[in-house]
Amino acid sequence: MWLAGPHCTVLLWHAEPAKLLLEALQMPAILKDRQLENDHLEVARLLVQAEADVNKSTSDDGTAPLYMAAQEGYVEVVHFLIEAGADIDITRKAGAGGVTASYIAAEYGHLEVVRLPVQAGADVDKTTDDGATPLHLAVENGHLEVVRLLIVARANVDKATTDDGTTPMHVAAEKGHLEVARLLIVAG
After folding, report:
1. 17-58, pLDDT tens digit by residue?
2. Cβ(83)–Cβ(49) below 8 Å
């Protein structure tokens, strides 16, 4: 659903229409929409102002608003949600991967988005259901600066996944990411 321009402005100034809107819409559905980040930020502000639960998921796989914003690379929305009390280590429910916002941002190479939960104290070694960490995904996709950030944040460069024992170095070698491999060697 599109919520931008004068409609958002009106809603910000009138509590009753905002409450009615909140009954019909939920934060995750809005953040899934592919509108501009500023629109999402304004909607997130409106919802938080109306005391919406920033950790509430309405999707079947347990996806929280922070995860959705991180996946899209919405730095300002991620920052706002963290400031509003979003759980930085919240995962999608079991069976959906156990993926955190840091993990999905690392996968997509959203450096500034990864930085925010890390600075807020996110567990950089939190694993998915199969044991992979944000570092594994950053390495797999060759996101050198994200790898560097996670190493500085003390991510375990030797952590193996639980399903097959693959370390980030194995992934870097398999994918041919030479610079990432060099960084892991120096860090290891």
Report:
1. 554 455 445 444 444 444 445 667 887 888 888 888 888 876
2. no
- The string of DSSP codes covering 87-123 is -TT--PPTTTT---HHHHHHHHT-HHHHHHHHHTT--
**76 burial level (CB within 10 Å; 0-12, 13-18, 19+):** middle
Q: What is the largest CA-CA distance in the chain?
A: 58
Q: Return d(Cα 157, Cα 167) in angstroms, integer.
A: 7
What is the distance between the alpha carbons of residues 54 and 147, in angstroms, rounded to a whole number?
A: 28
CATH of 1-87, one of 1.25.10, 1.25.40, 2.20.25, 1.20.140: 1.25.40
pTM value is: 0.77
DSSP annotation of 126 reads -
Candidate CATH numbers 1.25.40.20, 3.30.43.10, 3.30.1490.150, 3.40.640.10; the one for domain 98-188: 1.25.40.20
